[in-house]
Specification:
The chain is an alpha+beta fold and 284 residues long. The protein has helices at residues 2-15, 35-38, 42-48, 79-92, 189-202, 257-272, 277-281, and strands at residues 21-30, 54-55, 68-77, 119-122, 133-143, 150-154, 160-165, 172-175, 179-180, 215-226, 231-237, 241-247. The longest helix has 16 residues, at 257-272. It is globular, with a radius of gyration of 21 Å. The chain starts with a helix and ends with a helix. Bound molecules: flavin-adenine dinucleotide (FAD).
């Protein structure tokens, strides 16, 4: 899914620079790499379809705690620009938006303004009464500093230090915490300090010629996470209709988005195919 999204983001970036996508190096530093990471070679990464993958030399690692590092071609998105681009495209191609809070995906079949609905895609992030779903709180800090790469450091204690440049004068996200089931909406100043210090220690050039961060704001968000991974599944509903579930993407909603969309399109095609889905289920 990540590879599909990588290819699609490349195509959009080339055709629509206003969509807010920037291609830049991804850099990863690992203090305690798992066996899977350790087994990663340049040949294997190429075989997997990764572009520009290269293992970092020991002298390129930020400190002796980092045991493995690599770089590869990646992309970053300015979500404000990208979401407004998608919304404009959706409207231009005939999509209509109706804002309604529903208690269950099946409720959508009954909304009069929508006419005769055949298929509902449940891309609600957290799903509906799915006991495998939980939120993962994340505190990050938006800074005005620019950065020439998207850098992620996984520490041995399980914590992370990362940056995601938004580009287009959108600043750079410095993160971040991962706190399952924590609903606290308030950012902590102490956490902000620690995130900024830890990231600057790993990638000092972010501080620029002034040698400091320019903080724009603290951000607290909730990643829609699901035990066992996301749900991508078609559910037949009485009357030959169906709900396609596509939620629970955790902290990778953008990274996997076009792969998920492809999965949804495949399930939709199955539903519409003669002898499958719609026709078979109309006997229900
Ligand atoms: C701190 C943090 C860092 C992140 N970093 C990254 C990253 O580096 N890379 C990445 O790819 N992703 C990242 N994400 C994750 C990304 O934001 C999510 O994965 C993504 O937003 C999920 O997209 P989604 O469309 O599935 O769900 P959402 O964005 O949650 O959208 C769900 C939609 O469904 C609607 N909805 C929900 N319930 C109902 C209801 N009952 N009735 C009507 N409408 C409803 C909501 O209003 C919303 O519009 C991060 C998130 C956080 C919080």
């Amino acid at each position: 899914m990540a590879l599909k999204t990588f290819a699609e983001m490349g195509a959009i970036q080339r055709s629509n620079p206003e969509a807010g996508i920037t291609f830049m190096p991804g850099i990863e530093y690992l203090e305690a790499p798992s066996a899977v990471y350790k087994a990663l070679t340049e040949a294997k990464a190429k075989e997997m379809g990764m572009v520009g993958f290269r293992l970092l030399k020991p002298e390129e690692l930020p400190d002796s705690k980092v045991k493995l590092g690599f770089t590869y071609d990646s992309w970053c998105v300015n979500p404000m620009m990208y979401c407004s681009f998608l919304m404009r495209r959706f409207g231009f191609r005939g999509g209509k938006v109706l804002k309604v809070e529903v208690r269950d995906p099946s409720e959508v079949f009954e909304i009069k303004e929508l006419g005769n609905v055949d298929v509902v895609v449940n891309c609600s992030g957290v799903g509906f009464n799915d006991d495998k779903v939980f939120i993962t709180r994340g505190q990050t800090c938006l800074v005005a500093n620019t950065c020439d790469a998207t850098v992620t450091r996984q520490n041995a204690d399980g914590s992370w230090a990362f940056c995601v440049p938004r580009n287009f004068e959108g600043g750079t996200i410095i993160g971040g915490t991962k706190e399952p089931n924590d609903w606290n909406p308030a950012p902590s100043e102490q956490v902000r300090r620690s995130l900024l210090d830890k990231f600057a220690a790993s990638y000092p050039s972010i501080l620029g010629s002034e040698g400091k961060f320019v903080v724009l704001k603290d951000i607290v968000g909730r990643r829609p996470t699901r035990k066992g991974g996301m749900r991508l599944e078609k559910e037949q509903v009485v009357g030959g209709k169906c709900v396609i579930h596509a939620y629970g993407l955790g902290g990778r909603g953008y990274e996997l988005s076009w792969g998920v969309a492809e999965g949804v399109a495949t399930l939709l095609a199955e539903h519409l195919a003669p002898g499958h889905g719609r026709i078979a289920s109309s006997k229900l």
